[in-house]
Structure formats: C-alpha cells, structure tokens
Amino acid sequence: MSSPDSNKAWLLAAVCLAALGMPLSFTGPAVVLPAIRDALGGTPVQLNWVTNAFMLSFGATLMAAGALADAYGRKRVFLLGLAVVALSSALLTLAPGIVAFDLARAVQGLGSAAAFAAGTAALAQVFDGPARLRAFSLIGTSFGVGLSCGSILSGWLADTVGWHAVMLSPGAVSLVALGLAAPRMRESRNPQAMGLDVPGTLSFTAALSLLTLGVLQAPDSGWASPWVLAALAGALAMGAAFIAIERRVAHPMLDLSLFRFPRFVGVQLLAAAPAYGFVVLLVLLPIRFIGLEGRSALEAGGFMFALSGPILVAPTLAAWLAHRFSAGAISAVGLLVCAAGLVWLARCAPGTSLHGLVGPLLLIGAGIGLPWGLMDGLAVSVVPRERAGMASGIFNTVRVAGEGIALALVGAGLTALVALQLKASSSPSSVAVSQAAQRVATGDLAQALALLPGMDRAALLHAYGVAFGTLLCVLAGVTVLTAVVVFLFLRGEVESHGAEAALKCSTS
C-alpha cells in the first residue's frame, strides 16, 4: 500500500500534467488552423470559433466547476474533467465538419474547467504552508512549460504526423493524468458547500456567449446588423440580470462586495492585461506565419517559442524584485516593456526573418512575464483571508473570460483594419472587400486573392502588414493605460511573504 506522502506526490504529478495539457488545448489549434480549414472548410466566423469556443466554455464555467467540485467531490469532478478532455480530443479528429469541430472544442473547454478547478482545490486540501506554495509553484511551471513549448510541439506534430496528432495531444496528456490520479487520489468535498448557483451561472454564461457571438459576427454582417445588435443587447441584458441575481442570492457565485477593495479591482485589471498584450498573439501570429507568409508549422513554432519562452524565466525575476519594489511598480514596468515590444513588432513587415522578429517577441514575453508571476498570489493577498477562495475564482474567471472576449474583439478589429486598407488600394465592391478581409484575418490568402481580382500577393500582404501594425499600436496603447492604472491601484508595498506567495501560487 502506498504511503500518504507518495499519494500526494502522484496527485501533484497528475494535476501538473493537467496544467501542462491546458495550454496545448489553446495553442495547438492556432498553429494548425490553416490545416483544419483545408480539411473541414468553414466560414471565417466558424474558424474563429475554433479558439473562442474553448475559451468561452472554459471561462464561463470555471467558477461553477469549482462549486460542483466542493459539493459533489473534487476527485469525481477532476477525473470527469480529464475524461471529457480526452474524449473531446478524440472527437475533434472525427468531426465531419467545422460546426461539429467547434462544438467538440466547447466540450473540451468544459472538461478543462472541471479539471483545473477540481485539481487545484484538491491540492489545497492535501498540502499546507510552504508545501502548498511549492505545489502551486510546480503547477505554474507546468503551465508555463506547456505554453512555451506547446507551439513547437504542435508544429513538429503537424509537420511529421498531421493536424490530427495536435488535436490528440491534450487528450493523451489527460489520460496519463487520469491514470495517475484515479487509484491514488482521495475524495474530498466541502460539507458546507451550498451547491451550484444555477441562475447566476446561466445568466453569466449567456452574457459571455451573446457578447462573443455578436463581436465575431460583426465583421461578416456589419455592426449595424439586427442580429449583431440583438446579440449585444442580449449580452447587456444578461449581464445586468447576472449582477441583480448575485446581489440577491444568499450564496452568490461572484461576491460583488469584493470590488469595494481598490487593490482587488487593480488585480482584476492586471488579470485582463495579458489578454490583449500577449494571449491574442498566440493565436494571431501562427495564422500570420503559416497561413499568410507560408512558413512551416515547425518554423512558426520556433517563432512562438521566442514569444512565450520568457514566461519560464521572468516570474523568478519578479519574485526577486518583489522583495525590493511594490507589486504595482513591478507589474507596471513589465506592462510598459510589453508595450514597447508591441510597438517594435508593429514595425516588422510580413516576411521578416527570425533575426528581425526575435527581439520584439522576447521583449513582449519578458514584459508580460513580470506581472504573470505575481498575479495569482496578488488575487488572494489583496482581500481578507476568509475571502481568498472566492477572490481566486473571480480572478481566474476574469482572466480566462477576458482572454476569450479579447480574442473576439481583436479579431474583429484586425478584420476591420484590413478592410480599410483594401478599400484604399483596390476597387472591388465593399462586399468583396469585407469577405476578403475576413479571409485574410483567418489566414486564407488564396481565397482572399480570388475575391480581389487584380491584386497580387505582395499588395495584399502589404495591406495586411499595415493593418496588423496599426492593431499592435492600439494594443500597446491599451497596455500602457493599463500599466498606469495598475500602478495607481497597487503601488502600496507588498509584504515579503505576500510577494513570495504571488510567485509560488501562480497557476498560469
């Protein structure tokens, strides 16, 4: 019979593997999106849902998954989540079309949310004090390894085996994690758990879904389209309903009173910062490198490693600096460095060599890595201890949901900017320009050229390059503004143990 310490180690290994698989679920499809499009077809809106379906379902159900794990058993929900990830990964390779593929991606997001929420909750029950900090540090490292190496792994699998192997990789990791945890993980639950806040969960999910739907549909139908306006209005109504519900229920999914703490608000702004300064690039750049510039998936993975690799190193530097400077100052400096990298990258035209791109990519990754290493610990250190669990749930939901919304908004913005450039340099109808811009934004260069007779590849890439550069400058401006606000909200000194926790509790 295995010892309790041995069981803890195996549980930690299983949760770390689950954390390793999550970024593979996010970065992999971005690398092979052109191959998915060639195999399954689909409109630009349907192709955008390849990423957004996963992010939406993951972000919208994360807090609900935590509540279910507390009420019905953390082991049960953790193993169920891993099984759902594995099953959905297999279904992705069998999808007969892009709609079925997108639905399977949404199911994969549900499984990832269940595994993440239940796995971290289970670890918190079996590790205490410094051991808990070390355990969560390993989870953060595992997530960082998956994020940093996921693009290269996906590129290698795509070039040597095919896109199906990329889709299967998160499922394979989940099956190994399930095999480790099933015989050794002990069941635990919270006897005081009040179950799932069903009205809050449904209204929150509806608000996010309608907002994402409206933003993704806008480039195709127009922002004044009745369908788009109805979706955005519905999102606003559901958001208002969610706030009203959470104010009235005895045990809300989201405790709105936490937003009375200014430092807590600052942390939520910090949680959203990587979405538009870093995360969107994990999707946009592979589309550019592979779909538009014609690079191999493996070569694109190498480019992406320059962007995400610093995440493995920068958090350690942030922890060292946290002994000497406030978390607000460190985070603000990191965001300013990221903004400088975005402006530098904006000056790199399509076709720029790795030598020309490595500088701005490293700068963006290193800059975002400083607040990245502090955020999770700050989420729980800026509120009273008895509210730490709720604060962590809100933080992770804001971060993941914010990433999904950012992807939708930035994708729509890029499409609009490309359309403006095409209108200025070509004479086709506005419908053709709009359709071509959508194709360009999803990496379908051949179809875009077919819609624009008389325009050659070089002119189209130039129009895209100008639009992409403008978008990056806008994102840099947003990042600078966020840096200023975060500094003002978090400029107070953080105690040394809080700074250490900020690093070691990092789970992403």
Describe the structure.
With 508 residues, this protein is mostly helical. Helices cover 81% and strands 0% of the residues. It is built from 20 helices and no strands. The longest helix has 38 residues, at 388-425. Residues 493-508 have low confidence and may be disordered.
Secondary structure tally, helices: 20
Instruction: State the end-to-end distance.
Output: 34 Å
Rg is: 22 Å
Oligomer: single chain
**Given the helix and strand composition, which structural class is it?**
mainly alpha
Overall mean confidence score, pLDDT: 84
| Succession of helices and strands | HHHHHHHHHHHHHHHHHHHH
Tell me roughly what share of residues is in helical segments.
Answer: over 70%
Strand content: under 5%
What features would you highlight for this structure?
508 residues, globular, mainly alpha
What's a quick, concise take on this entry?
The chain has 508 residues and is an all-alpha fold.
Question: SSE layout and pairings?
Answer:
Elements lengths: L3 H28 L1 H8 L3 H29 L1 H21 L3 H29 L2 H32 L2 H19 L16 H24 L4 H23 L13 H31 L4 H12 L5 H8 L5 H20 L7 H19 L2 H7 L6 H38 L4 H12 L3 H7 L5 H34 L5 H9 L4
